# Entry
Amino acid sequence: MTPPLFLGGIGIQEILVVLLIVLLFYGGKKVPEMMRGLGQGVKAFKDGMNEVVSTETEDKDKTTAPEEKKE
# Structure
C-alpha cells in the first residue's frame, strides 16, 4: 500500500515527534486554542464554498427557466 501523495513518507513516529515539538513550543493550553481556531477557519471556508455553489445553482436556474410570454 502506497501512502497518499500529500503525506510522502511520513510515518506515525514522525507525526508523534512533530506533535511533541508543537506541544513543547506552545504549551498545553495554547494547542487546543490553535486547533479550535483552525476548525473555525475550515468551517468558514466550507460555508463560503457552499454559498458560492448555491448562488451558482440559483443563477443557473434563473437563466434556464422558461420565459413567460406577454400577450
Remarks:
- Residues 28-61 form one domain.
- The chain is about 75% helix and 0% strand.
